[in-house]
Amino acid sequence: MKNSIKLTGLLAIILVSSLFIFATKSNYNKTPTEAVENDKNTSETYQIRALKIPQNLEFAGERVPIEKEDIRERVDRELLVNTYWQSNGLLLFKRAHKYFPIIEPILKKNGIPNDFKYLAVIESGLQNVTSPAGAKGFWQIMRNTARENGLEVNNNVDERYHLEKATQVACKYLKDAKEHFGSWTMAAAAYNAGKSGIARKVEQQKVTDYYDLLLAEETKRYIPRMVAVKEILSNPKKYGFIFDEEDLYKLEPIKLIEVDSAITDIAQFSKELGINYKILKLHNPWLRENHLNNKSGKLYQIKVPAEI
Fold first, then answer.
1. Does an H or E element contain 266, and which?
2. pLDDT (tens digit, 9 = 90+) per residue, 83-129?
């Protein structure tokens, strides 16, 4: 009996070993594609596809020369990054629905192409953020640029966080850059690298087209990133973004209250209006403290919900 059990066990070991050797040999003989298909480490439906680059890409009416291999690669990179960073992409759709209606009329009023709304998207993600260099707001405006263009910037009030006023300053900068460099694409590059920075590159390299310039990494990616974001936000289903109207963020109706004196306690001021400190600050992020100094008697317009 014992010998029979030992023999059975030995035969089982030999059988398992043979199956293992066969399976290993079988996998070894497969092509890489076959091995991936049969040993997938994700769900069967998960795929990451290469993207086909549209042939008719343009920015502000100016064609993107994707027949140039380096430009094609730069655009492809930004399309891939912004398509497959899905959570960020959905947030951009949601915020754009809320804030583009504020930005677009100001661009139109100033003669700036509508495509420049995507500049605010790539600069800040349509948020009031601060860069490592100290640029602030949706349009990432530096302190000196803001003051030179009439914005109030101090510890108490920072109008770089005032979307309408900051958009107006961005328009002025872009219009001046377009007059200087001759194209909207170059004006956009100057917004990133500075007018003097782009002027130096033009002088050194003896070319006047953005797509012919050798630029620092951030500026090199700048226009292709805007082109890619424009393409994706203009064609959500084409790039796999599915949402309903109710999923998008909406701009709350507001009304303006004029103030030409100091506010000693904004929290108390809010309470007297029938709202709270948080709500007032969300509508007026340019108010940086819990009081408004206003020693000069300047007339400020403060946004509050329309229903109060």
1. helix 266-273
2. 999 999 999 999 999 999 999 999 999 999 999 999 999 999 999 99
pTM of the model: 0.86
**Distance (Å, rounded) from C-alpha 169 to C-alpha 149?**
6
Angstrom CA distances, 270 to 258, 262, 290, stand at 14, 14, 10
According to DSSP, the residues that pair with 259 across neighbouring strands are 300
- From CA 82, how far away is CA 92, in angstroms rounded? 10
Q: Are 39 and 95 in contact (CB under 8 A)?
A: no
Q: How many CA atoms lie within 13 A of 147 on its CB side?
A: 6
The Cα 161–Cα 128 span in angstroms is: 6
User: Taking a C-beta distance cutoff of 8 angstroms, is the pair 260, 301 a contact?
Assistant: no
Tens digits of residue pLDDT in 21-47: 444 444 445 455 554 556 778 888 888
Q: Looking at this protein, which amino acid is placed at residue 224?
A: P
Distance CA(17)–CA(22), nearest Å, equals 9
